[in-house]
């Protein structure tokens, strides 16, 4: 039997692999996509589970800085556990994850807005009071 030669990855191939893996990891921020994968049996396949384990490198700061949806890292971590992968088939679990993600984003957005506002910023001035009819003429 002849052993296959492994060709080194070109710079272009490396760039494309980076983009594809970045896009896939960010898709994991969507509980509906995880549910889709579970329904089709991907989360039961050992090769796919191995791929999810390989993608853990995105947790490193040098790669994580490219992520637009950091919640994907939380779901990537959860997908390392077989019990979680089994539960993802359930539509109720998917709905719960989706609801919780939305609540987190809402809370995070409000909290971030308050955090970024300097504490000694004065309140914006009140709008001028509306006049009650035309001004009276004084005699």
Ordered list of secondary-structure elements with their pairings:
Layout lengths: L10 H17 L3 H9 L6 H9 L6 H4 L6 H8 L3 H6 L3 H26 L23
Helix pairs in contact: 2-7
Organism: Parnassius apollo
GO molecular function: transcription coregulator activity
Subcellular location: Nucleus
Please give a handful of descriptors for the protein shown.
139 residues, 7 helices, flat, transcription coregulator activity, Mediator of RNA polymerase II transcription subunit 31, nucleus
Describe this protein's structure.
This protein is mainly alpha-helical and 139 residues long. The protein contains 7 helices and no strands. It has helices at 11-27, 31-39, 46-54, 61-64, 71-78, 82-87, 91-116. Helix 2 runs antiparallel to helix 7. It is flat, with a radius of gyration of 26 Å. The chain starts with 10 loop residues before the first helix and ends in a 23-residue tail after the last helix. The model has no long low-confidence stretch (mean pLDDT 84).
Distance between the terminal alpha carbons, to the nearest Å?
A: 114 Å
**Helix-strand pattern, N to C?**
HHHHHHH
Number of DSSP strand runs = 0
Mean pLDDT: 84
| Broad structural category | mainly alpha
User: Level of helix content?
Assistant: 55-70%
Sheet having the most strands = none
Strand content: under 5%
* Poorly predicted residue ranges: none
Radius of gyration (Å)? 26 Å
The helix count comes to: 7
Tell me, briefly, the overall form. flat
């Amino acid at each position: 039997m002849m052993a296959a030669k492994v060709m080194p990855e070109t710079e272009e191939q490396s760039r494309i692999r980076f983009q594809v893996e970045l896009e896939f990891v960010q898709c994991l921020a969507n509980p509906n996509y995880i549910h889709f994968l579970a329904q089709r049996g991907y989360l039961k396949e050992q090769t796919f589970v191995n791929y999810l384990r390989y993608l853990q490198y995105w947790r490193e700061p040098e790669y994580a800085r490219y992520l637009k949806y950091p919640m994907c890292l939380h779901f990537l971590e959860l997908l390392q556990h077989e019990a979680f992968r089994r539960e993802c088939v359930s539509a109720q679990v998917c709905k719960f994850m989706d609801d919780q993600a939305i609540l987190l984003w809402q809370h995070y957005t409000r909290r971030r807005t308050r955090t970024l506002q300097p504490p000694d910023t004065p309140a914006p001035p009140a709008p001028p009071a509306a006049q009650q009819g035309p001004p009276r003429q004084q005699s």
